[in-house]
Amino acid sequence: MNSNIDHEYFMSLAIEMAKQSLASNEVPVGAIIVCNNKVIGKGYNLNISRSDPTAHAEINALRDASKLLANYRLNNCQMYVTLEPCIMCLGAIFHARIEKLFYSAIDQKTGACGGYLDLTQDKAINHHCEIVGGILANETSALLKEFFKNKRQKKPQT
């Protein structure tokens, strides 16, 4: 990792986005996109409120950054996301040409960077990015665990 970049700072910004998801009763996942040490895109989960299965934090951040740059290619950009990306999101990250991906918590159910399956080394995919996981993982894991614990407690008893 580049020591000139404060990865924990940028991940903390993604965590703030995840907290916005939480406030909207969405799974607390947040993402930001950084270019030249400047945040150019932000997103958080909006699947439920938008009734949109593609409204993941990563996709929303990619849309935000692409709109700002007026380009679907985000060369030389980095993404920070609080949860390991799923297949859909990793595919979009690759297509956008994100240079480096930093994620926090491992997703053992749907993660596509090694948590559940690993598409990061698939030679059939024509673009890959540098990927680093585990940044502030305790904090993001606790946020996710608390969200799902509260969901289970609020389920009606049958």
Written description of the protein model:
Helix 4 links the parallel strand 3 (77-83) and strand 4. The protein has 158 residues and is an alpha/beta fold. It has a five-stranded mixed β-sheet with strand order 2-1-3-4-5. It has helices spanning 7-23, 47-50, 57-69, 87-96, 137-154; strands spanning 30-35, 38-44, 77-83, 100-105, 130-132. It has five helices and five strands.
Helix content: 25-40%
Straight-line distance between termini: 50 Å
Largest sheet: 5 strands, mixed
Shape type: globular
Element-level helix/strand string: HEEHHEHEEH
Topology, number of strands: 5
**Radius of gyration based on Cα positions:** 15 Å
Secondary structure class reads alpha/beta
Poorly predicted runs = none
Summarize the structure.
Helix content is 39%, strand content 18%. The protein has 158 residues and is α/β, with parallel strands linked by helices. The chain has a 5-stranded mixed sheet with strand order 2-1-3-4-5.
Q: What is the strand and helix layout of this fold?
A:
Layout: H1 7-23, E1 30-35, E2 38-44, H2 47-50, H3 57-69, E3 77-83, H4 87-96, E4 100-105, E5 130-132, H5 137-154
Parallel strand pairs: 3-4, 4-5
Antiparallel strand pairs: 1-2, 1-3
